[in-house]
Amino acid sequence: MSDIRTEVQKEARNNILQYAIFRWESAVVIALTLLVYFLAPGPLGLPRELWLLFGVIGLGALVYSSLSDAETNARVILEVFQEKFDPHKIRDKALRQEVEAALEYQRRIELQVRKQPAGLIRDRLNDAANQLSEWVSNIYQLALRVDAYQADDLLAKDRDKLPRELEELRSRREREQNPGVQQQLDQVIESKTAQWKTLRELDARMRQAQLQMEQSLTALATVYGQVQLLNAESINSGRAERLQSDILEQVKRLDDLVTSLNEIYTYNA
Predict the structure, then answer these.
(1) CA angle at 247 for the pair 244 and 249, rounded to the nearest 5°
(2) What are the distances in angstroms from CA 255 to CA 54, 101, 138?
(3) Model confidence over 176-221: pLDDT tens digits?
(4) Burial class (CB in 10 A: 0-12, 13-18, 19+), 148
(5) Cβ atoms within 10 Å, residue 53
(6) Do residue 61 and residue 157 come from a single domain?
(7) N or C terminus of the chain: which is more exposed, having fewer CB within 10 Å?
(8) How far apart are CA 39 and CA 52, in angstroms?
(9) 125 and 195: one domain?
């Protein structure tokens, strides 16, 4: 999932570059440079080429400041993540808020990464941020699956009618005397029983998924606190390795749950 973060960072850099070029300060610099250039020889008697050079340097400084500003980078990265993991696609308000909270933790951790000077601490934070991208992605996929489940009226109807149908079929089977009809009824009962079992398993997994999302957000908040405390001393003490281990454990747990839900949901569909 580090590939996702790399892709997001690349898109974010393009967005930041566009922002830097089209921000109002850049527009002012460009406008003034062109104005002075066409008023040759220009103010102070300097050659217009020199003023053009000043304008290019000024524009370059604005672009560089935008690209290197930690707050701007973190904000734009959040915007790109929100496009990729759009909370508005989730209809349930509580689930949507949980995804938005996960994205906000992602933004703040990105900000911590970008505030760090180059070195071991930043490298470790970069590794953590790469893994967090997968974590946030799994939270989003889990929210989408739970949201779809909650809105699935067909599953709700099946959940309501299957117990009654099974009761009626079993009662009919007890009264039926014809062997051929009995065999057909047995087959229908077996099929309905399997469907009901799958539905109950799906219900249980969805309840598990909702609890796991709550637990995962709590763990994400804890990781955010640990990231803020990360320093040279904690790097040497092994705290960074424990942090990465905790993140990987959460990622794997969510990944396994998302995979199992997809398998069950697809089978039932």
Answers:
(1) 110
(2) 53, 19, 6
(3) 889 899 999 999 999 999 989 988 988 888 888 888 888 888 888 8
(4) middle
(5) 13
(6) no
(7) C
(8) 11
(9) yes
What stretches of 96-253 adopt beta strand conformation (E)?
Answer: none
Tokens representing 237 are 């003490």
Provide the 10 A C-beta neighbour count for residue 120: 12
Structure tokens at 203: 């219900």
pLDDT given at position 202: 85
Question: Which residues, other chains included, contact 245 with Cβ-Cβ below 8 Å and sequence gap of 6+?
Answer: none
Are the CB atoms for 108 and 224 separated by under 8 Å? yes
Q: How far apart are CA 40 and CA 34, in angstroms?
A: 10
Which amino acid, 51? Answer: W
Specify whether 132 is located in the same domain as 7.
Answer: no
Instruction: Determine contact, residues 203/146, Cβ cutoff 8 Å.
Output: no
Q: Are residues 125 and 248 in the same domain?
A: yes
CA distance 176 to 185: 9
The overall average pLDDT reported for the chain is 80
Residues 160 and 230 in one domain: yes
Q: Which one, of 146, 126, 133, lies nearest residue 102 by Cα? A: 133
CA geometry: angle 58, 60, 63, nearest 5 deg: 115
Give the residue from 69, 62, 36, 65 showing the smallest Cα distance to 51: 36
Range of the domain at 21: 1-68
Count of domains observed in the chain:
2
pTM above the 0.70 mark? Answer: no
Residue 223 · residue 132 · CB < 8 Å: yes
| Residues 239/215/145/81 CA torsion (nearest 10 deg) | -40
For residue 208, give both structure tokens: 């598990």
- Any domain includes 83: no
